[in-house]
Amino acid sequence: LLCLGTTVGCTMAVYAFSELMIKSPVSADQEGALLALPVVVCLLNLGAPYLFRCLAALERQDSPVLEVYLAICRNLIFKMAILGILCYHWLGRRVGTLQDQCWENFVGQELYRLTVLDFIFVLLDTLFGELVWRLISEKKLKRREKPEFDIAGNVLELIYGQTLTWLGVLFCPLLPAIQIIKLLLIFYVKKTSLLANCQAPRRPWLASHMSTVFVSLLCFPSFLGAAVFLCYAVWQVKPSSTCGPFRTLDTMYEAGKVWVRRLEAAGPRVSWLPWVHRYLVENTFPVYLVSALLLAVIYLNIQVVKGQRRVICLLKEQISNEGEDKVFLINRLHSVYERKERSRVGRSQEAERLVDGPDAW
C-alpha cells in the first residue's frame, strides 16, 4: 500500500506540474525553464527506488527471487506510470496548445532532455549512491562490508533508457545514436563502480533468471507501450501545419495512401505495389491472421517452456529420490557391516576366553 501510494502520489505530482507548465508557457528567452519537468521526473525516478528499498527491508523476504521480483515490479510500475502521464501530456495536452508551432519538435526535444538528464542522474547516483556511501560506511560507520550491488535498480535503469529511445525515435531520429553512446559510458562507469564500491549480494541470484526477466520486461511493458504511443501519434494525431513532411495531411498514416495514389498514376509497371498496399496493409484480415499466428507461436512457446520446467522438476525430484535411496543403502550397508564387526569381535573374544580358560585353570 505504501509503494502504490508513493507511485500514485508521484504520478499526480508530475501531472500537476505538467499542467502548471501548460498554464504558464515559457518564453523564447527562458528556454532553460523547459528543463524543469525533466528534472522533476529524474529526481522522482532517483528517489523512489531508495524509498522502495527501505520499505522492502521491513518485509524481510526469505526468498531472494521474490525480493528481486517485487523490487522490479514496483520500480517498473512507477516508471511506466510516470511515462504514461508524460505521453498524455505530450500528445493529449501539448498538441492542443501548440497550434501554430511544431509539436513534433517539442516532443523530440522533451525526450532528448529526458535521455540526457537520465544519463546525468545515473552518474550522480553512481557517484553519491555508491562511492560516497562506501566512504561513509568505511570512515564514519566503521563497516568493513561494502554496499550490495542493486540488481533490480540497474536493470530498470536500462529498461527505462531504452523505453525513452523507443518513444523518441520518430520525433528525434538521432536519439538511438545518443543512447548507444550513453550505454557505453554507463557500462564502463558501472563496471568501475561495481569493482571498487560494491560487493555481490549475500543471496545468490542466477544470471539466467535475470536475463529472462530483462527480456520479458523489455519486450512486453516497454516495447508495447512505446509501440502504442507511436501508433497513436501516426494514426490519430494531426501533424503540425508549419513543419515536417506531413504538414498537409490530416494524419501521418495518410502519407502511405498518397504514395499509393501516385504509384497508381505512375503507370502499369508498378501497379502491383498499390495492390499489395490495398490488400495486405489496408485490409484488416492479414493483420488479424498475423496476430493470431503470433499469439499461437507465443502460446506454443509458453507451453514448451512449461513442459521443460515440468520435466526439470521431475528430474530434480528423481535425482533427489535416487540420492535418498543411495543414502538409505549406504546406511544399511553400514549397519550390516557394524553387525558383522560386532559378531566377529564377539566370536574372537569368546575364542580368547576359551583359549585362556585352561591356562588360568
TrEMBL record:
Its membrane topology is listed as: Multi-pass membrane protein
What Pfam families does the record point to? Answer: TMC
The cellular component terms of Gene Ontology attached to this UniProt record, alphabetical and capped at eight, are:
plasma membrane
Task: Report which superkingdom the organism of origin falls in.
Answer: Eukaryota
Q: Which residues form the TMC domain?
A: 102-208
Tell me where in or outside the cell this protein is found.
Membrane
Transmembrane residue ranges: 32-56, 68-91, 212-235, 285-302
Question: Keywords on this record?
Answer: Membrane, Transmembrane, Transmembrane helix
Q: Extract the GO molecular function terms from the UniProt entry.
A: mechanosensitive monoatomic ion channel activity
InterPro entries named in the record: TMC, TMC_dom
The family classification in the record reads:
Belongs to the TMC family.
Name of the protein: Transmembrane channel-like protein
Annotated organism of origin: Neovison vison (American mink)
Upper taxonomic lineage: Eukaryota, Metazoa, Chordata, Craniata, Vertebrata
